[in-house]
Amino acid sequence: MKAMVHQGPGSFVWQEHPTPQIRKPTDAIVKIEATTICGTDLHILKGDVPTVEPGRVLGHEGVGAVTEVGAAVTEIAVGDRVIVSCISACGKCSYCADGMFSHCLADEGASGLGWLLGHLIDGTQAEYVRVPFAETSLHRVPQGVAAEDAVMISDILPTGHEIGIRYGAVKPGDVVAVIGAGPVGLAAMMTASLYGPSRVIAVDIDANRVEQAERFGVSDGVISSDPEWKEQILALTDGLGVDVAIEAVGVPSTWDMCLEIVRPGGHVANVGVHGKPVSFPLESAWIQNLTITTGLVNTNTSRMLIKLLAQGRLDAGAFISHRFSLDDIESAYTTFSSAAETKALKVILAARR
Length: 353
Hints:
The chain is an alpha/beta fold. Helix content is about 25%, strand content about 25%. The chain is built from 13 helices and 15 strands. Strands 3, 4, 5, 6, 7, 14 and 15 form a seven-stranded mixed beta sheet that branches. A six-stranded parallel beta sheet has the order 10-9-8-11-12-13, sandwiched between helices. A two-stranded antiparallel sheet has the order 1-2. The two termini are about 15 Å apart.
């Protein structure tokens, strides 16, 4: 088969790669129908995730058809169309029992970490992928839901929802600011509406992304390159600051922005993947009674989000800006990594039928 293989920082290639085989009784093999590229993949290529070794097939999002299952798999069958979760979870260890699937203790990656695909084992940017713990790491695609829409359940929708909105404890009437209007930031904006905030403010350096954010339930947009960006946000909160500030980029400057605009007693929810340390001025922030949260998505709300998607309550198609053949994945990476010029949100990579 062909796959997108990481060659080390700054290097990747679409090339022939061994077709995955069943290794454990709980495995399934999925033939990829549609996949996509995540901002985390770009962080990997920048060298921000050194645990990804050269030779690894990238990707942790996808939809496809099951072609083979291990002997212990009884709830997923050959022929099922499934969503591949970005988190692989055994469902039995102590962390899984608590719903913290991101820290699954199973021995697949010998890491105590549920993010395996495209990280510690070969991922979904390929013609086929082996999915460990198939019964707890795959979800059937509801009838009538397009594959490209279902891909958004693999990662960005649960990530924005869980790490941004749920960890940020968004509640009715809150003012929420999301710093970064990329795909995960937009997912936080879209799912924020499920909790009844009074305002959702999109903040981004890119005017196009701020404009596009209006389609995701945003009430106000602020361009962060404007010298008065902070004053604009405070003016929307009676000068108090936002109740919830969500960092959805992963760079020190956007982290700092969150601390500047959150009110005393507010929440800062960090969603972005950071490749460099950030500063936290505890000497001045301690008195603000802030709650700071961060984390890796658990995907414990994926089944709920799938129901909302099937009912038309989530417009997953709104995330898609470009479509490519899976064979043209190198061009897709160029487009996705140049989002300021290409206006890319999520790029869909579809296998040839």
